[in-house]
Amino acid sequence: MSLKGTVWAPLGPSPIAEGSTNANGLVSSIAVHPTNLNIIYIGTVGGGVWRTQNGGVSWTPIFDRQLALGAGEPAAIAIDPNSPDTVYVGTSGRFAPQPPAGLFKSTDGGASWVQLGSGYPAGNTGNATQFFNQSIDAIIVDPAASNVIYLACSRGLFRSTDSGQNWTPGSNGFGDARTMVLDTSTPANARILYAGIAGRGAFRSNDGGQNWTQVLSGSTPVVAAAIGASPRGFNKVVVALAPPTQPVPNPAGVQVLYVSLEGTGGAPDPVGLFMSTNQGGAWVQQTATGMPTRSQGGYSFHMAVDPGSPGDGINDIIYFGCVGQAKSTNSGNSFAGMSGLHADTHSWAFIPQPNPIPSVVFCGNDGGIDKSTDGGATWVTLNSGGLQTGLFYNIDIKPDATGSVTVGALQDNEIETTAGAAGLGWVATEGGDGWDVAYDAAVPGQVYGSSGFWSPAPCTRVHRSTNDGKNFSTEITPWGTTTDGGCYLAGVTTDPSTGNIVYVSGSQNLWQSRDGGNTWRLLSPFNAAGNVDVARANGNYVVIAVGNQVFVSTNALAATVGPPSGVTFANITRNLPSRNVARAVFDPTDPTTIYAVLGGFNGGGAGQQGHVFRTTVSASGWTDISPALDVPFNAIALDGSETPSTIYAGTDFGVLRSVDAGQSWSVLDDIHFPRVPVLDLIYLDGNLRAATYGRGAFGLVKPTGPSIAVHLDQGLAFGTVCRGPQYLNLEVYNVGRRTWLSTASSG
Question: At 747, is the pLDDT very low, low, confident or very high (cuts 50, 70, 90)?
């Protein structure tokens, strides 16, 4: 094998240079230590949980070895206020490829984790297993009793009285519970909580989450008036609580509750801002002039009340975010937009300060985490210091001897390149969402990229760069303003042996250009965007994976299109399982041999198993060469320097390798690679790089420390791993469970 490295190393971005600010991947939850305000935990949509101990100057990943790296939003990280080294994390699959894996608990500040209900270690039993496949969005540890925990998830509202081992659902609290708040001023034996359940409304519990009463619905008069006539409605419900002016239910006190809703069916989005000063008994709609709009189906939608607010329902400070963000200082009657924040809001957090100093406020969004110390007037990013949470869709490397430049396409962070200005690392240069990117095989520095936005259509465009992606100065979109323009993840591919030949897969058609994108021809219609590959040994051979089907052409360079003698594609799906075909690629040395990887999980019927397959153009079926592993496969790359070609496969939990045509498989350096979805792999001249959805890019490099020493003992692997010149890690791996049990560091 010709690999130039043996261990994975993070390549960034950390951070992403976006204009005058820095960004990173999506931050879904934020939790601040109650007594040491320099300690902050953040949860991400696919990159696990990170901790800073110096106020965001540097970050450490502390969740890489767990079974799911997506943390829920907006409040799926909870710190026990009485014992701050105890931290809970709820996983979520709402916006991440990995399914959720339940509720995790650490009692040492995130150094090690236990999946509650998993049976490990001994005594870790209980019914928390019911959350293994649920998206957890909010967790609250009761400050009056650390054993009492409240939880909101996609199944509803739950309470534990034994520190998370066992859970009881709240009566009338079923449904997709997305937000929850606790009134800590209420008596410990009669806690009042509020929650938002999607499509149902706002609910209140007067007995610590055991029973729930609906206090706001679509038929509440002010809500019904704001929504408008049926079939308009609402889905996600956000609740926020102001600090009480007096202990409630003391009649002299005031407790102000705010609610907003994601509009559906043509209703305003969001549906207004509603306020109650009597625990949901009566509601008024705030004027909400200037309130942000466009929650994007609830994807980017959260609000919170500054704990430094007076709590009087008149002068409360509300931070409200959708695509954009705004602040109100008059309880939501008017909002003023805030600048300096990345689009798409997911979470807010605060550190109260003595009056009249404004609270420190944090915003988690699609660009990472931002902080303001002046009430939102200005913001600074906390996206550097090793934080690497980029959400890659696709990646490519410059076809030179060293792979000197890496380019990538990322969710909501554009097309990026490492060829930016000196010292800036990764620079975002084109897009909103970057969809795909590909280097030209022969024209130095020439890169093609597709990018755009989810809506409004037609939104996807294709551009060309002549300087390694530093800027994409020329638009070369093959379609006009209709047809393929509404495409999501438009694939871009080049002929690996011939310059200026580029393919773009739109939402309805596959296009080909032979002059670097100056002119195009429609090669073949397809019913969706796909991933395309061109054979290195013969540019006439083109394969495309579209949905659960695979098509191949053996005359893609023909002068005309269509039969009898022009370019045609044959359906070679044959006996593949009826699941999404993530990628189909040619063997680098044989244009008649094709490999495919499939997403999803094995089905129960005959012929519905397997994730890696091989066929030939003239064969009648595919051969299953899958490892004994039932997880989604998303990416594949082949090294054709030896026979048989070495296969690299990207899964939802890392990278596998086979050196014997799929007869056997091994994990490629599991120790240094997080359990994160790998959506793309690129191999070129010994350079192997992986694009992950949540932990940025990784490259296989030569180790800088001593060799790894590992020994087995009763099903456990104990390894000492040099992470650098300053410290050593001891890692313990349960071979049977494929689970990392603990990590301890020493100087």
Answer: very low
- Contact between 580 and 599 (Cβ < 8 Å): yes
What Cα–Cα distance (Å) separates residue 434 from each residue in 301, 346, 408, 461, 544? 22, 20, 8, 10, 20
CA angle, corner 659, sides to 656 and 662, nearest 5? 70
Topology classification of domain 392-701: Methylamine Dehydrogenase; Chain H (2.130.10)
Task: Decide which of 450 and 230 is more confident.
Answer: 450
Go through 123-156 and write b for each residue having 16 or more CB atoms within 10 A of its CB, e for each that does not.
Answer: ebebebbbbbebbbbbbbbbebeeebbbbbbbbb
Radius of gyration of the chain (CA): 26
Q: What are phi and psi of 87, to 5 degrees?
A: -130, 140
Q: Give the rounded percent of residues in the chain with a pLDDT score beyond 70.
A: 92
pLDDT in tens, 600-651: 999 988 999 999 999 999 999 999 999 999 999 999 999 999 899 999 999 9
Q: Do domains 25-381 and 392-701 have the same CATH topology?
A: yes
Q: Each residue of 231-250: pLDDT tens digit?
A: 999 999 999 999 987 665 55
> Which residues 6+ apart lie within 8 Å of 93 measured at CB?
68, 70, 99, 100, 135
Query: Alpha-carbon distance 363 to 345, whole Å?
Result: 7
Average pLDDT of the chain? 92
Q: What is the spatial distance between Cα 710 and Cα 406, in angstroms, rounded to a whole number?
A: 33
| pLDDT attached to residue 484 | 81
Give residues with Cβ within 8 angstroms of 641, minimum separation 6.
1, 2, 686
Q: Give the integer Cα–Cα distance in Å for 393 and 731.
A: 30
The whole-number pLDDT of residue 13 equals: 95
Position 465, amino acid: S
Comparing CA positions, the residue from 508, 468, 495, 619 lying closest to residue 557 is 495
Count Cβ atoms within 10 A of the Cβ of residue 498 and give its class: 0-12 exposed, 13-18 middle, 19 or more buried.
middle
Q: CA-CA distance, 388 to 299, in Å (whole number)?
A: 22
Q: What does the alpha-carbon distance between residue 6 and residue 12 come to, in Å, rounded to a whole number?
A: 18
Residues near 187 by beta carbon (within 8 Å), at least 6 away in sequence: none
The 10s digit of each residue's pLDDT in 268-299 is 999 999 999 999 999 999 999 999 999 999 99
- In angstroms, the Cα distances linking 287 to 157, 238, 307, 334, 376 are 31, 17, 22, 7, 21
- Fold of the domain spanning 25-381: Methylamine Dehydrogenase; Chain H (2.130.10)
Strands, E, within 380-505: which ranges? Answer: 380-381, 392-397, 406-410, 415-417, 426-430, 433-439, 447-452, 461-465, 474-475, 491-494, 502-505
Question: Rounded distance, CA 668 to CA 485, Å?
Answer: 38
Q: Which helix (H) or strand (E) holds 168?
A: strand 168-174
What's the pLDDT tens digit per position in 140-175? 999 999 999 999 999 999 999 999 999 999 999 999
DSSP, residue by residue, 186-213: S-TTS-EEEEEETTTEEEEESSTTSB-E
Q: What is the token pair recorded at 302?
A: 């959260």
The domain spans of the chain are: 25-381, 392-701, 709-746
